[in-house]
């Protein structure tokens, strides 16, 4: 089986639980460190799937790796190679596929409930209609043409979309406890434009031992559906 390519855009925003899940299901993966100067491959054919992680930049920035990344996503979709995106990764997918990324009406930092937004969510989440996810974003994506919104939240209308075997998410279901604690070190800078959906590090730490396993129950369903589309050859 070809590996899943995992694209990291910031040293603190690695694959987290997504990598743990892949390894538990014997799915090989390789890390492409965009943050250390690695270039996106010119074509997706050497991989069974593409995964794009988060990052502090905007997909609207003038960065040299953005244009080849958009082309790579479009090529994967054309070839039926599954793509999954987390936060910035979901925004990359949306823009590559004809959507837009704009400022969210509030900055969303911390834990917050997401809920299903269409019957199509059943294919990905079964009978789960809502769960608490982790959030860390100030921008949001539109649903690209042909895709279907499956998740929403009180502070962000578009939390996830699907297009065939492809899944773009605004929320972070890949989080681990250590990742959350690392990100909280940058909370003061991120909180410069605070709003009603911004939690303090102390609030993010509350019930961590309950929240992470509950979120992983949702992540397991989403990731299980996604890896079912990977080619085994």
UniProtKB/TrEMBL annotation:
This is GMP synthase-like glutamine amidotransferase. It comes from the Bacteria. Keywords: Glutamine amidotransferase, Transferase. GO terms for molecular function: transferase activity. GO terms for cellular component: cytosol. Residues 44-177 form the Glutamine amidotransferase domain. Transmembrane segments: none annotated.
């Amino acid at each position: 089986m070809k590996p899943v390519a995992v694209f990291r855009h910031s040293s603190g925003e690695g694959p987290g639980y997504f990598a743990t899940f892949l390894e538990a299901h014997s799915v090989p993966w390789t890390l492409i460190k965009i943050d250390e100067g690695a270039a996106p491959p010119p074509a997706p054919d050497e991989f069974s799937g593409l995964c794009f992680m988060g990052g502090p930049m905007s997909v609207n920035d003038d960065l040299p790796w953005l244009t080849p990344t958009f082309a790579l996503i479009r090529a994967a979709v054309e070839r039926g190679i599954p793509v999954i995106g987390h936060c910035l990764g979901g925004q990359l997918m949306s823009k590559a596929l004809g959507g837009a990324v704009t400022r969210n009406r509030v900055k969303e930092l911390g834990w917050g409930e997401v809920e299903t937004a269409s019957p199509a969510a059943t294919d990905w989440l079964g009978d789960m209609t809502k769960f608490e996810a982790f959030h860390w974003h100030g921008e949001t994506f539109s649903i690209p043409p042909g895709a279907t919104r499956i998740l929403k939240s009180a502070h962000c209308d578009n939390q996830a979309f699907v297009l065939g075997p492809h899944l773009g998410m605004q929320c972070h279901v890949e989080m681990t406890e250590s990742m959350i604690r690392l990100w909280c070190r940058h909370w003061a800078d991120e909180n410069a434009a605070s709003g009603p959906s911004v939690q303090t590090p102390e609030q993010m730490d509350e019930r961590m031992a309950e929240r992470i396993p509950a979120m992983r129950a949702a992540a397991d369903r989403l990731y299980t559906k996604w890896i079912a589309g990977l080619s085994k050859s």
